[in-house]
């Protein structure tokens, strides 16, 4: 007979060890799954986790690590704040799209004028786009008590439709011979978000992501907002008595995460993506949810988790090219990672006891 | 507007609302048992691919539906084991289930894109089908439409007229009290979660076998989330669930009819937003009733 017994204190050792055990278990389970599909499991794991960094094409894929980790970390830092307080913004993907649309529209409005003011204006517009989109579920929850999970998610589909209409209509490149998609912002010097150090993939969005990690860490441990967030997450009633206004907290957490997601979209559209196309969004907003949990909702953890998730993205693309695995297999891999993480998490708060319970 | 046929439109509403209704009735039972499973989308799409694969392999759509229900139920057990035995966070686990299901389905359906599945025949209802207006709207559909409505009726009966249904509601309202009375909270919840998974699987298979009918990656396009919204809209009551599904089906069918008629000068992308915006609007206007008391809270016998 195996029983679970609640620990008096959450185990610190397991809190730290859980992500590593989860990654290891995911590799084993993923390998088994690939074997079932008739692919060589060792080769698949190597292609996904090793080759992007040290394989034959590593000089191409290594810079991609920061390019992909940047938006993931930026979005996840924002989400982690709300998740800690029990505020579930699941629609970061939509806020990311809106940030990109606002920023691209701002940049293109000035085309072809050149001014150093254009790029900062785009940053502001991107943050504003994400913020406004996140305010819809936030204000609806505060005012009408609607569920923010459902509303923020519905708005992802609305944002995708809006993106398609922008790429086909208002923001379409007039010199693009009728093809969908906007002008290439990366080729418009005043709006471009270039690679800062050649061969590293470092751009302004990655810089901001690193700043967000540091600021997030300070806010969480030193600032009153971090204290209120943690209090509301652990005991909503105590938080109310402690003077935390729940509505205020919803608006702040949703607004911050929306603005950060919008910024991620802005830096993506001005840099690595370059143009606003129908398929501009690739699921960073959803993967960031996994990054936030894998990083234990802790800024430093999110930094590491973001890099790992970026690695699986690049590895997934390699596996698609070299082993004919569908790109969605990576999504399954990521879901599996979250499963293992949540399952092992039980060891943080509970310990296993063997044998029958003593008479209480 | 003038070239939209009201009979075709109403008949389309029934078809469009069926997959949502199936997924929603399953989730309703799960939530009445006090569990919040946000993985409906993942179970639906897994059902869609399982149903399609089995149906094309055997040539029988009914075996396809059975396979879809089984696939959905199996996947839901991942959620069940994690949340009920490992006491994981239900919101996070549900999201993981959706991501996992989307990936798994793409992997399983890799060789089935563009393949034509077997045709699901309409149920022949002599007499009823010839009633003017009502006949073509209500009685010229495939059997799954009626099975979905039957499941809703049976769930209503179960929840309100049977002892087991009352126990399930008690577990959902207050799991500690139910446990103290000697009811098996975890076992009952696992059964409810499996039922929810099977229903979501059926809903997904209805998409891939009847409504579309073929397999494409990510074909559920948020239907699972809309099902979750409809459960809230229905205040966790089966009767209002049908109304919610038809309202949503109405927004979708009207949007599709407007696209096809070409009579209105609205870009297709804006029409496509309609069902999602309608769902948000409904969530705002109709305040939900009281949610089951233990909804989303983990249960551990020690506390």
UniProtKB/TrEMBL annotation, chain B:
Positions of transmembrane segments: 6-26, 38-57, 63-87, 94-115, 143-159, 190-209, 215-234, 241-258, 270-289
**Localization per Swiss-Prot or TrEMBL:** Cell membrane
Q: Name one Pfam family in it.
A: BPD_transp_2
Among its keywords, does the record have Thylakoid? no
Protein name according to UniProt: Simple sugar transport system permease protein
Query: Which keywords fit this entry according to its UniProt record?
Result: Cell membrane, Membrane, Sugar transport, Transmembrane, Transmembrane helix, Transport
What organism does the UniProt record list as the source? Limimaricola variabilis
| PANTHER family to which the protein is assigned, alphabetical | ABC TRANSPORTER PERMEASE PROTEIN, SUGAR ABC TRANSPORTER INTEGRAL MEMBRANE PROTEIN-RELATED
Question: Which membrane topology term applies here?
Answer: Multi-pass membrane protein
Main location class: membrane
